[in-house]
Amino acid sequence: MWNFSDLLPPFPNLVHWGETKTWYGIPWDDAEKFEAAIKKEAPDLFEAQPDLLFQLVTLMSPQRLTDEGVRVYACNQRAGELVITFPKAYHAGFNHGVGSFLLASIGGTSLTSSISPSVKLQ
């Protein structure tokens, strides 16, 4: 899902172990282009729910965004690598399989560790 941190500090995201995670990022200065493109894609949904972007339920192909003039960057994060997400910069990603991930707030108190949501635990 596409999301961003509004006023929070940057967040480092670490893959402890496991499969690759693919990230997509949009520079903060393309945020308005992104919002216009996604609202253009589903105007009825945004009319019914103006805060839809803040509910972590929005998906749109990076290719469709670039077709609308939005700069989209991608990277593959592997075990032991760090990706930092910045405030006001939209980002999305998905896990390629099993893994353990850490999200921490720089200068804040948030610390979250989890197992990939793509893993079915028995």
Could you say which overall geometry the principal axes of the C-alpha atoms support?
globular
Radius of gyration: 15 Å
Report the sheet-strand fraction.
25-35%
Query: What is the number of strand segments?
Result: 7
Structural class: alpha+beta
pLDDT < 50 runs, ≥5 residues: 109-122
The total of helices stands at 3
N- and C-termini, Cα separation: 25 Å
Mean pLDDT: 83
**Biggest sheet, open or closed, and with what strands and sense?**
4 strands, antiparallel
Please give the share of residues in helix. 10-25%
H/E series: EEHHHEEEEE
- Across the major sheet, the strand order is 4-1-6-7
Topology overview:
Blueprint: E1 11-18, E2 21-25, H1 31-41, H2 43-48, H3 62-67, E3 73-77, E4 82-85, E5 91-95, E6 99-104, E7 111-115
Antiparallel strand pairs: 1-4, 1-6, 2-3, 2-5, 6-7
What does this structure look like?
By secondary structure, the protein is α+β, with helices and mostly antiparallel strands. Helix content is 19%, strand content 31%. The chain contains three helices and seven strands. It has helices at residues 31-41, 43-48, 62-67; strands spanning 11-18, 21-25, 73-77, 82-85, 91-95, 99-104, 111-115. The protein starts with 10 loop residues before the first strand and ends in a 7-residue tail after the last strand.
Sum up the structure in keywords.
122 residues, alpha+beta, 4-stranded antiparallel β-sheet, 3-stranded antiparallel β-sheet, 3 helices, 19% helix, disordered C terminus
Short note summarizing the structure:
By secondary structure, this protein is an alpha+beta fold.
